[in-house]
Amino acid sequence: MQAASRESYKIAAERLDAYVRGAEPSAVASTADDILSVATLLRREPRLRRALSDPARSGADRAGLLGEMLRGRIGADALDLLASLASGRWSAPSELLEGTERLGVEALLASADKSGDLGEVEDELFRFGQVVSGQSALSNALSDPIAPAEQRAGLARELLAGKARPVTVRLVEVALGGFGGRSFIGALTRLVELAAERRDRQVAYVTVAAPLSDEEERRLGARLSEMYGREVSVKQTVNPEVLGGVSVRVGSDLYDGTVLRRLNETRNALAKS
Prior knowledge:
Elements: H1 3-21, H2 25-44, H3 46-52, H4 59-70, H5 76-86, H6 93-114, H7 118-133, H8 136-143, H9 149-160, H10 166-176, H11 184-198, E1 201-208, H12 214-228, E2 231-238, E3 246-250, E4 253-256, H13 259-272
Parallel strand pairs: 1-2
Antiparallel strand pairs: 1-3, 3-4
Helix pairs in contact: 1-5, 1-6, 2-5, 2-6, 3-6, 4-5, 6-10, 6-11, 7-10, 7-11, 9-10, 10-11
């Protein structure tokens, strides 16, 4: 987002945080669903996106237009938060859509946080991404842009039935819609990171040839927390092809101590000699 859009989103996000503090988790989840349903509407209706982000209209006018359309169709709390978005300044209609979708996701994560489930939601999203990435047929079925969105969502709900919390399932549906213009797996990854951010944690993606023990994972997490000055959520991927050692990615930082990397470096050095 550009600066004006970021500021408009920040105001709405602060309003969301104030609302969440006094609301029940179920009410917050319902509000999130309302906001995400409006995000879906904005994705479908480019003319509406343009009207609600038109700089030639006042913020009050745009918020009023939104209210006329949605009053009675969504909850009052969702409408209030969406009016805050619509009354802001947006650098492009696409950024209003991005802000609406992000606000709905943050509301979902806040509902899980209030109910004490946010850590589990974070882990469930990561594990589902691992399952999908490990099965090309499943990945293709869920990522196929030609297949109807509801068909792909139905497949995801079937796979997650009895294995994941409702917030996780809803977030997977958001990822299937291409959250933030990303691929399905890219969207899942971003949602994992947003869940960690709400818990004031950094995500470390760790690749190993064989699973780390609980104690090894704990020690690695503690070491990374010291390095980055905040708690770190370790997400472990097992890939026998790395042969041994550990690869760790935190944001744009990559620490690759795998046997595979050392072999590749040796091979390249020999080829140049």
